[in-house]
Design a protein that fits this description.
The chain has 25 helices and 18 strands. With 593 residues, it is of the alpha/beta class. Helix 20 links the parallel strand 13 and strand 14 (456-460). The strands form 5 sheets. A 6-stranded parallel β-sheet has the order 11-12-13-14-15-16, with helices on one face. It has a 5-stranded mixed β-sheet with strand order 2-4-7-6-5, with helices on both faces. It folds into 5 domains: 1-89, Orthogonal Bundle (DNA polymerase, domain 1); 93-157, DNA polymerase, domain 1; 161-250, Beta Polymerase, domain 2 (2-Layer Sandwich), CATH 3.30.460; 255-345, Beta Polymerase, domain 3, CATH 3.30.210.10; 355-591, TIM Barrel, CATH 3.20.20. The structure holds one DNA strand of 29 nucleotides.
Length: 593
DNA sequence: GCCGTTTTCGGCCCGACTGTTTTCAGTCG
């Protein structure tokens, strides 16, 4: 059985959770979580690394001990330590810590005193008002827990939103807050700013002399369903859509530090602060400080009081913050602690691709199949975006639901496109193309006799999506053997929140693409964004250029290019790494095999 | 459990808010 990175990460995370419930050394717990993240973020396969005899302890946060444990997981699919932990503890308690306001300590306490081991038992105990009898719990906590249990039932567990879904709520809310009295700077931070493909909640940052009015404006916003907390510097609400929003208010002099802090990622912040500590600095959301005294005099201290005894050396802008730790500015999309700190230190951060760099769209559909508009309407829209070309890539016949094109209908479309191109007179070019289905055996759904008439062929897997690894990979490789094949569309087929990626060896496929002069796209559809950031980065490191395409079915969705570009930026791609930043003449040369 | 331009031992990022206390632990981000 092949062990995937996410299997390894899951085991390490479970160990961390159980150790935490056992009240183990928190730093030890953190080590397991860090290692889990390192493995999950790996572009290559940890199992392959073990097989090749590579030393896993070279990876950040993985030492001799964890390297050995990961080897054990890869070789046996399990870990003795976890089995032992499961025997020793009550592994069911893990799910209880997902309830908000319940962490390891309180879960353990409820288990000891009330014998609560499951969500059902938790709910019963809360309904019977038994929780409030436990020290540290009160009526308020009890009703909060009940409410959280209700919400989880309603929407079936924790929910993450697509980036575009958050955008739809974020922008009007920002507009609402901007009109508030005394509001200076205002921005969305968090994973929304880092352009993660899905976002859990929304973090908003504002500067204001007096936070009172803007906090009031925030919690009384019409979309707010419930106020979770409300303070002078931070308030949290849940919108009717179920999105949690946090608003933080800081002074102008702290804006950059706070923006850096709340943009994250957490791992990036930790890495940044670690450098600061080594330089005798302290970074928090109020600024960068040079300490005037040694270690804190024990206990928790209020940040404000302590900071007044330290000298602020930066805070107004993010650039200042980075400068203090000796780094150039790092774009939000790169802040995942996936090597950006080292790259910044060594002056080899990529200059990230921008939307303006894109000269055309290489996948879109028309009325001929499942698109909603004519070729001409799509062409008009593409020209308005400033593009120089677009490829019409309707489905092939296998996709019966979309009334995919057979040879005859594709031939007719080719003729139609040639006619429109003539009328357009050379300023804008419509490329003759097709999204050909890659059949189960790796052959293409249309014969070479028609494919050779096209400017480019993109191929994709839509059926028999759950073939086992080797077969699925061979299938795609075989499709790439066809001399007319150029671009593998939505390579892994994943749909965020609903469909897992196909079982594919992407590293092998990318190597093959490099050999054969083929490419793997970043599909900009909000729920696909496929390739993901990690694999886009892998392509870049291999020297494989990546096209970004929208897969648009309407003129409006041509605008999803910005999402594809964001994903490319998260994958460290610069302009020269992106295929469709090239003018058609140069692009055509690269597509020729 | 990891890690090393104050290091191989002794640190490990930092603060706000809530609900419970009566000075703070726990949780969260």
């Amino acid at each position: 059985m092949a062990v995937h990175n996410r299997d390894v990460a899951e085991i390490l995370n479970e160990i961390a959770d159980l150790l935490e419930i056992e009240d183990a050394n928190p730093f030890r717990v953190r080590s397991y979580r860090n290692a889990a993240r390192t493995i999950a973020d790996l572009s290559g396969n940890a199992a392959d690394m073990v097989e090749r005899g590579e030393d896993l302890s070279d990876l950040p946060g993985i030492g001799k001990d964890l390297a050995g444990k990961i080897q054990e997981i890869v070789r046996t699919g399990a870990l003795g330590q976890l089995e032992e932990l499961r025997r020793r503890t009550t592994p069911q308690l893990r799910e209880l810590t997902q309830i908000s306001s319940l962490g390891p300590k309180r879960v353990q306490k409820l288990h000891e005193e009330l014998g609560v081991e499951s969500l059902e038992e938790l709910e019963r105990a809360a309904r019977e008002q038994k929780l409030r009898g436990v020290a540290g719990f009160g009526a308020k906590t009890e009703s909060n827990i009940l409410r959280d249990l209700e919400r989880r039932k309603e929407r079936g567990g924790e929910r993450r939103f697509l980036w575009v879904e958050i955008e739809e709520y974020a922008e009007p809310l920002l507009e609402h807050l901007r009109k508030g009295k005394g509001v200076g700077r205002l921005a969305a931070a968090g994973s929304y700013r880092r352009r993660k493909e899905t976002v859990g909640d929304l973090d908003i940052l504002a500067t204001c002399e007096d936070s009172g009015p803007v906090m009031e404006r925030f919690v009384s916003y019409e979309e707010v369903e419930r106020v979770l907390s409300r303070g002078k510097t931070r308030s949290s609400v849940v919108l009717r859509s179920g999105i949690q929003v946090d608003l933080r208010v800081v002074g102008e002099e702290s804006y950059g530090a706070a923006l850096h802090y709340f943009t994250g990622s957490k791992a990036h912040n930790v890495a940044t602060r670690r450098i600061a500590v080594a330089k005798g600095l302290k970074i928090n959301e109020y600024g960068v400080f040079r300490g005037t005294h040694g270690k804190d005099a024990g206990g928790k201290s209020s940040g404000g009081k302590e900071d007044s005894e330290r000298r602020r050396v930066a805070g107004k802008t993010e650039e200042e913050v980075y400068e203090q730790v000796g780094l150039p500015y790092i774009e939000p999309e790169l802040r995942e602690d996936r090597g950006e700190i080292e790259a910044a230190r060594e002056g080899r951060l990529p200059e990230l691709v921008q939307l303006d760099d894109v000269r055309g769209d290489l996948q879109l559909h028309t009325k001929a199949t499942d698109g909603k508009m004519t070729i001409r309407e799509m062409a008009d829209a593409a020209q308005k975006l400033g593009y120089e070309y677009m490829a019409v890539t309707d489905h092939s016949k296998r996709v019966t639901m979309a009334q995919g094109l057979d040879e005859r209908r594709l031939a007719e479309q080719i003729e139609e496109i040639e006619g429109i191109n003539e009328e357009l007179g050379g300023g804008f070019r419509i490329l003759k193309s097709c999204e050909v289905d890659i059949l189960k055996d790796g052959s293409l759904d249309l014969p070479d006799s028609i494919l050779k008439e096209l400017d480019l062929v993109i191929g994709s897997v839509h059926y028999n999506t759950n073939l086992a690894g080797e077969k699925q990979t061979e299938r795609v490789l075989r499709a790439m053997d066809n001399p007319y094949f150029s671009i593998l569309a939505h390579p892994t087929g994943r749909i965020l929140g609903s469909r897992e990626p196909y079982d594919l060896d992407l590293e092998r496929i990318m190597k093959a693409a490099l050999d054969r002069g083929c490419y793997l796209e970043i599909n900009a559809d909000p729920a696909r964004l496929d390739l993901d950031d990690v694999h886009a980065k892998m392509a870049r490191e291999m020297g494989l250029k990546v096209p970004i395409s929208t897969d648009a079915h309407t003129a409006t969705s041509l605008g999803h290019m910005r999402l594809g570009v964001a994903q490319a930026r998260r994958g460290w791609l610069s302009k020269r790494d992106v295929l469709n930043t090239l003018p058609w003449k140069e692009l055509a040369k690269l597509l020729r095999r």
